[in-house]
Amino acid sequence: MYLEHYGLKKNPFQITPDTDFLFLSRSHARAKAYMSYSIWKWDGFSVVTGAPGTGKTLIVRNLIARLPDEVTAVYINHTRLPVKEFLRSFAACLGIQAFSAEKAELISRIGDYLNRQADQGRQVLVVIDEAHYLKPAVMEEIRFLSAVERKGRPLLNVIMVGDVDLLEKFDEPHMEQLRQRVRLWYSISKLDKEAVKEYINYRLAVSGRRKEGIFTDAAISLIHSFTDGTPRLINILCDAALVAAYVNDEDVVSTAHVRTALEELQWDKFNGKNVLAQKISHSPSALTDEHSEKKIPPRLRISNQGLLMAEFILDRDSLSIGRADTNDIMLDDPFVCDFHAVIHKVNDKYVIEDLDSLNGTYVNARKIKARALEDGDIIGISSYQIKVDFSHGEDISSSKSLKSNGGSDSEVTALLNPGRMAI
């Protein structure tokens, strides 16, 4: 609906894998290079892992599309099958008609096929996507097949691709023999803030956009914060933000459009529980709920123009606030100094100190140089409000509803512990 408005020829942020949109960050490029090397060397077994949505399937499909003619590639992503059904599926992908065959016959016919391919000077590669769903018995059969050799060279090359849970399966004691066969282990990383910008502009360029600038730098910082650099989530959020800007007949996507998209996507619960759940922590110094005696950490509730953008768990003795991306809380705003303020713990109190900023730091609408913080205080930095919450409230990691009754915390879009965060 917005393609013509932005000068695009195709949807830049579709979530279905399309090899035309493969963006090779440093991590993705290394993963592809390692897989290509393992095929060239024909060394038997490789394992590639990464968090959901990091682009593993896209890399694999791009790799398969560019294999030399002498390699027969089989792609399998139905991995929740028991042994017999998996072998039947594998045989069918090889063109072997064996839907009624039993296990022994299946293994024999697959072995015959591999030998015939070797006689013709061909190599067979099987790429198993979603490999973290494989049953242990299936993984053992794959080991047997990968062990079939001729003159010291394996007849079958295997690349397993899956989420990080796949590594836990390999760590099981009964997987020792399979683990020893793996020649290559590689984990794909998520995108950092700079790579997110490159990723967004790359997909726009592939879609026909002739120049950069649809997304402002501040909007990209916000997208990075709420997607944690996961390509699939970046696609979803960017698409919704483009729609929000298009509806307002605007040519540039700003932070306001990203916030509208977050609200439309209802990512308050989704993001808090899934995307950034690993960043929620409970420190030994956290407060204690007087009823349950469960430790509840102090929190900073960060809002901008009425939208609560994040809950920041205060579990360290010092944290910095500013525009530079090395800060613990990064406020991407031209009126915020690179290093604007710092909150540090003095005895049992948290104190906020202004770092000689140009536009000042405020607590409860009063400009301060340094001030001990109390429960309910509102820190003002440019257009941001940071509410101090030392109360014995509900544990946010188990809260069913994260919405407050109004004020500057009317919506929740993320939960974070100290660590670099862009707002």
Describe this structure in words.
The chain has 423 residues and is an alpha/beta fold. 34% of the residues lie in helices and 22% in strands. The chain is built from 13 helices and 22 strands. The protein has helices at 3-6, 26-41, 56-65, 83-93, 103-119, 136-146, 165-170, 176-181, 193-206, 217-227, 231-247, 255-265, 267-275; strands at 45-50, 71-76, 123-128, 149-150, 153-154, 156-162, 184-188, 287-288, 295-296, 299-304, 307-313, 318-322, 329-330, 341-346, 349-354, 361-363, 366-368, 370-372, 378-381, 384-389, 415-416, 421-422. The strands form five sheets. It has a seven-stranded mixed beta sheet with strand order 17-16-19-20-10-11-21. Strand 19 (378-381) and strand 20 (384-389) form a beta hairpin. Helix 2 (26-41) crosses helix 3 and helix 11 (231-247) packs across helix 12 (255-265). The longest helix has 17 residues, at 103-119. It is elongated and about 80 Å long. The chain starts with a helix and ends with a strand.
- Main sheet characteristics: 7 strands, mixed
Question: How much is the average pLDDT?
Answer: 80
Q: Would you count the extended β strands for me?
A: 22
- Tally the helices: what do you get? 13
Question: How many whole angstroms does the radius of gyration measure?
Answer: 26 Å
Shape: elongated
* Percentage of β-strand residues: 15-25%
Q: Low-confidence stretches at least 5 residues in length (pLDDT < 50)?
A: 269-294, 392-423
Strand neighbour order, sheet with most strands: 17-16-19-20-10-11-21
Fraction of residues in helices? 25-40%
Assign the structural class, choosing from mainly alpha, mainly beta, alpha/beta, alpha+beta, or little secondary structure: alpha/beta
